[in-house]
Specification:
It contains 9 helices and 12 strands. By secondary structure, it is α+β, with helices and mostly antiparallel strands. The relative contact order is 0.20.
């Protein structure tokens, strides 16, 4: 397929957001094209086969309470979810040692637990002041966005152990280091997810359910419905704008 084609909207990327956008625009009667650089859809969701029709997810895995839009989408696509397995002991490597325990928080020295608790109370309280529809309008948005979560930890958490626990929470929830996330984004995400406890919990938390067949099935089902609207192995090389139109240049067409 070569040459120049005209569309109402060109969506770059066939991850969850791109496919939802294409789906809603197509339903409204717009002529839409989705260009995806990879040879698959799904973005940061990816199922890897382990044989016998089973998969392991090597990207995003879970859905939970407060994630109302994706839960509604799962139901609308005719997909099913099941409870995350949550029996037995938890295990964590902390301070160079492996510990097994029950509950959410690993066994720690009382002074470290107290320090973690005061940090959590402060962070949850700050998070509630961040508007979910416009986080940049929070009263202290400019101050919080000018620092990382790591810099806040170094100033406000006294014990090394508590800072390590908070860093572990950040790594588990964001798949990123505290130094790589602005404090404002961290607080916005806490507020949207219902606070630290809910974000790190399984039962009634962000890890409560998994998708039957793997989380990539959400994107795959949307792509199946969209059909030829989605074009794979089509990296966008350049986007040019004028007062009248937008030109999207991919390998095989413009």
């Amino acid at each position: 397929m070569t040459g120049t084609d005209v569309y109402d909207v060109v969506v770059v990327g066939a991850g969850l957001a791109g496919l939802v956008a294409a789906r809603e625009l197509t339903a409204k009667g717009h002529r839409v094209l989705v260009l995806e650089a990879r040879d698959r859809v799904g973005g940061r969701t990816l199922n890897e086969s382990i044989g016998d029709g089973n998969v392991v997810e090597v990207g995003g895995q879970w859905v939970g309470p407060t994630q109302d839009r994706v839960l509604a989408l799962i139901d609308e696509l005719g997909l099913s979810r099941h409870a995350t397995y949550n029996e037995g002991l938890a295990q964590v490597e902390f301070g160079g040692r492996t510990k097994r325990y029950r509950g959410t928080i690993p066994p720690l020295r009382p002074v470290v637990l107290a320090d973690v608790a005061q940090a959590q109370v402060r962070l949850d309280r700050m998070a509630r002041t961040v508007p979910l529809d416009a986080p940049w309008t929070a009263r202290r948005a400019s101050v919080w966005d000018a620092q990382t979560f790591d810099s806040w930890l170094r100033r406000n958490v006294r014990t090394k152990g508590a800072r390590e626990v908070c860093a572990l929470v950040c790594q588990a929830v964001f798949a990123a280091e505290p130094a790589d996330i602005s404090l404002l984004h961290f607080l916005f995400y806490l507020h949207s997810g219902g606070g630290i406890d809910r974000l790190i919990s399984t039962v009634d938390g962000a890890q409560q359910w998994r998708i039957v067949g793997g989380s990539q099935r959400i994107a795959q089902r949307m792509a199946e419905d969209l059909g030829d609207v989605v074009e794979l192995s089509a990296p966008v090389r350049r986007i040019e704008t004028t007062d009248y139109d937008v030109t999207v240049v991919a390998d095989r067409r413009t």
